[in-house]
Amino acid sequence: MAPRLFLSSGDLVADRRYEFARDLQLKGDLPAAAELLEQAIELVPKFPSAWYTLGKIRLELGQREAAIGAFRAARDADPEDRHGAGLHLMQLGVEAVSAMPPGYVQTLFDQYAPRFEAALVGDLGYRGPALLFKAVLSVRASAKKPAFFKRAIDLGCGTGLAAAAFAQHVDRFIGIDLSPRMVDKSRATGLYAELEVDDMLKGISGKPDASAELILAADAMVYVADLAPVLAEAARVLVAGGVLAFTTETHDGEGVILGEGLRYAHSAAYVRASVDTAGLTLALLDDLSARNEDNIPAPGLVAVSVKP
């Protein structure tokens, strides 16, 4: 479960009513919680945390239109949309699937950083880096090439789990992550020659042509709606014969959807088309789950492509 974000209203009484409402929500008294949140909003109309929580409660009560209104108000009250209210509007089908607000992603992972590995590996059985390592070894073996790389880029590096999996096979790692606190965790591992606080697309766009033999994105593409721009830049940055390996979640339909966990799921056909459009050759696409959701493996894909 994601850490709970609270953005103070700046009014002590409104904040207290919000906290009382949260207690009632956790106890299951949703109508009473909603009433207290409305009182807090009456005191401070631009109270994003109250609007967001009210939206979730209205949704749970089956009050769809009221939930939509509350989520829109939450986003209006916080232009960075750090709660991710806009993502719920996408889920409800009232807005098209589009990019996640950077403020939401950064805030989410800044909050997660202190317990990220315990939550992801311990609670969710995260195995993305191990799956990528095995897949890259398989592709290189099939091509009769060694699985050793001078320069690698770790997109969405988090706390450094992917770099740890590949540490004996990479001479020099660059890590890129939007969360400063995640980057601090990665820096503490000593696995990276360079670390940058940036989103994946901006980070890789700043890299020179043909400057990496390996690019990894472990459990990072689930926060990217449109894979094409990132894959195109990866293709530019890779040397000929270079490898791009990533995990993503998937679904049985077409295109890209936003799942219940507020992560994007890309269909296999969409991944194939995106890799092809980027000018890469898909060497492996396996149905493998990188993590669990509610103790059940989340449908996933492991993709490895090569630059011709």
From TrEMBL:
InterPro entries: Diverse_substrate_MTase, Methyltransf_11, SAM-dependent_MTases_sf, TPR-like_helical_dom_sf, TPR_rpt. One of its GO terms (biological process) is methylation. PROSITE patterns: TPR. One of its GO terms (molecular function) is S-adenosylmethionine-dependent methyltransferase activity. It comes from the Bacteria. Transmembrane segments: none annotated. TPR repeats lie at residues 48-81. It holds the Pfam family TPR_19. Residues 154-246 form the Methyltransferase type domain. Keywords: Methyltransferase, TPR repeat, Transferase. Belongs to the methyltransferase superfamily. PANTHER family: METHYLTRANSF_11 DOMAIN-CONTAINING PROTEIN, METHYLTRANSFERASE TYPE 11 DOMAIN-CONTAINING PROTEIN. This is Predicted methyltransferase, contains TPR repeat. The lineage of its organism: Bacteria, Pseudomonadati, Pseudomonadota, Alphaproteobacteria, Hyphomicrobiales.
